[in-house]
Design goal:
Blueprint (H helix, E strand, L loop, with lengths): L7 E7 L3 E7 L5 E8 L4 H16 L3 E7 L4 H7 L6 H12 L5 E5 L4 E5 L5 E5 L7 H10 L4 H8 L13 H13 L4 H21 L8 E4 L1 H5 L1 H11 L6 E2 L7 H7 L9 E2 H9 L18 H12 L13 E9 L4 E18 L5 E8 L10 E5 L2 E8 L2 E5 L5 E2 L2 E2 L6 H13 L3 H4 L9 E3 L1 H15 L6
Parallel strand pairs: 1-4, 5-8, 8-9, 13-19
Antiparallel strand pairs: 1-2, 2-3, 4-10, 5-6, 6-7, 11-12, 12-13, 12-16, 14-15, 17-18
Helix pairs in contact: 1-11, 3-10, 5-7, 7-9
Length: 467
């Protein structure tokens, strides 16, 4: 049974990355609203939202109107009227905040500034996603978080760095050196938001002043209050000039619901759901390329063919021989590969009292160091120079990267690598680190490895086969 005996108006806003719906009663009050990312699956996402609405309202009659950058084609196939987004937003603002002079709206892949004073003037960036929600998602991924995490970081910033927001590639070029130099995530997050502000104001306003009462609309400005604060700080707005509605991310959908056509007939909500669920074939779709694989059998043949060619791998725990560690520290990723030849393990000894590093020792793969027992190290070039360690800790520096052909190493971030390197540097005595007459930091061989080395050298002198 329906909870609403009267007909409701339905506003649908199909944006570049999200779908928003709003059901309004005759008093223009929101009965139901929701907002979801569509991930390029618009019809299924919209059908899901309308089913949610049906659960709240029951079977009802609706007067639907569609708006948004992705709504025009769908509106013709659903036989639902379309209204321009600027008209929809203006209608909602006229009802909620008629004192608005300027509206700033950020979407998933576009940004708009709408001037209302002195006639409507809309400025839109719809060609490039720089400075929009997608740009923020991309920058958040660079800092290994999401948009809300970026907002949390920005709340505690201390400094703002200049970052380009016109293009994600340029922004990465600005951010990566800052990460490498140790800039905090808090400062980087605030700098990213400030870059969005600068891009919006300079790229869209183009010198036209943003004055008076300013409304902040769209998902990014609704869900990221620190981004909104960056705009307020830059525009020097007073609290009285800030218009931030609770449903600011739904304004276009609400405005669409307020703009039905004259004498437009109501239709059952269930009819819309059925049309969307049955799948509407868009006539504008271009011809698709042939799929990579015709069927599962074709895919299985591909996998079998490529599985026959792979890098030879082995079990490190049973390997005998030298291991060579290669590290590629790139601008955004760190890659490591452990390649074996005739394998050693590397230990570092730390003094327990001071925490300083005493020496490194190369050992044969099957040797272990027991820190509970005294351990004697010696200079491999002057074996009469020995030192017995008592109160010490031995740490294995080599770690397993691949095991049985699978990656078993958790790759640290560049920031974590930087912290680790700084910590390790602190374990060296100042006499070792100084530039003028530094002390020698010893890297020794274990007795077993030293014996193997000398045996091989003796065989070489005798002309024997070393294999």
């Amino acid at each position: 049974m329906s909870l609403h005996t009267t007909t409701l108006t339905l506003g649908i806003d199909i944006g570049s990355t999200t779908v928003k719906v709003a059901l309004l009663n005759q008093a223009s009050h929101i009965v139901f609203s929701d907002y979801e990312r569509h991930y390029a699956n618009i019809q299924e996402t919209l059908a899901g939202l309308l089913k949610k609405a049906r659960e709240i309202t029951g079977p009802i009659q609706v007067i639907p109107v569609i708006t948004g950058s992705g709504g025009l084609t769908l509106s013709s196939h659903l036989e639902v009227p379309f209204v321009q987004e600027v008209v929809a937003v203006a209608s909602a603002l006229q009802d909620f905040a008629p004192q608005t002079d300027v509206a700033i709206e950020l979407g998933g892949e576009d940004a708009k500034i709408i001037y209302f004073t002195g006639g409507i003037d809309q400025r839109m960036n719809g060609i490039c996603a720089g400075g929009t929600g997608s740009f923020i998602d991309q920058m958040a991924a660079l800092l290994q978080t999401d948009a809300s995490g970026l907002n949390d970081y920005a709340e505690h910033y201390k400094a703002i760095y200049p970052i380009a927001a016109r293009c994600g590639v340029f922004a990465k070029s600005d951010i990566q050196p800052l990460i490498n130099e140790g800039a905090t995530r808090e400062d980087l997050a605030a700098s990213i938001f400030q870059a969005v502000v600068n891009q919006t104001i300079s790229g869209l306003a183009c010198g036209k002043p943003i004055r008076g009462n300013v409304a902040f609309l769209g998902g990014p400005l609704h869900f990221l209050p620190q981004l909104r604060e960056s705009f307020i700080r830059t525009l020097r707005l007073t609290p009285e000039q800030v218009i931030a509605p609770d449903h600011s991310h739904l304004f276009a959908a609400v405005g669409a619901a307020m703009n039905p056509q004259d004498n437009q007939e109501a239709i059952p909500l269930e009819t819309l759901i059925q049309r969307l669920s049955s799948g509407i074939k868009m006539d504008f779709e271009v011809k698709r390329m042939e799929p990579l694989f015709k069927d599962q059998e074709d895919y299985d043949r591909f996998c079998a063919r490529h599985a026959s060619n792979h890098v030879k791998s082995g079990d490190l725990s049973s390997y005998e021989g030298c291991c060579y560690l290669g590290i590629d520290a790139g601008s955004t990723t760190t890659k490591a590969a452990l390649v074996g030849e005739d394998g050693t393990l590397l230990y570092r000894f730390y003094d327990n009292e001071s925490g300083k590093a005493l020496a490194d020792e190369l050992c044969v793969y099957d040797e272990t160091i027991d820190s509970t027992k005294p351990h004697t190290i010696f200079d491999p070039d002057a074996i009469w120079k020995t030192k017995t360690l008592t109160d010490y800790t031995a740490r294995e520096l080599h770690v397993t990267i691949f095991k049985n052909g699978e990656l078993v190493y958790k790759q640290p971030s560049l920031y974590e690598i930087r912290i680790y390197c700084a910590e390790q540097l602190e374990t060296l005595w100042d006499e070792v680190k100084r530039f003028e007459n530094p002390h020698t930091y010893y890297v020794d061989l274990s007795k077993k490895l030293w014996d193997i080395k000398n045996a091989l050298l003796e065989k070489s002198k005798d002309g024997k086969d070393l294999k």
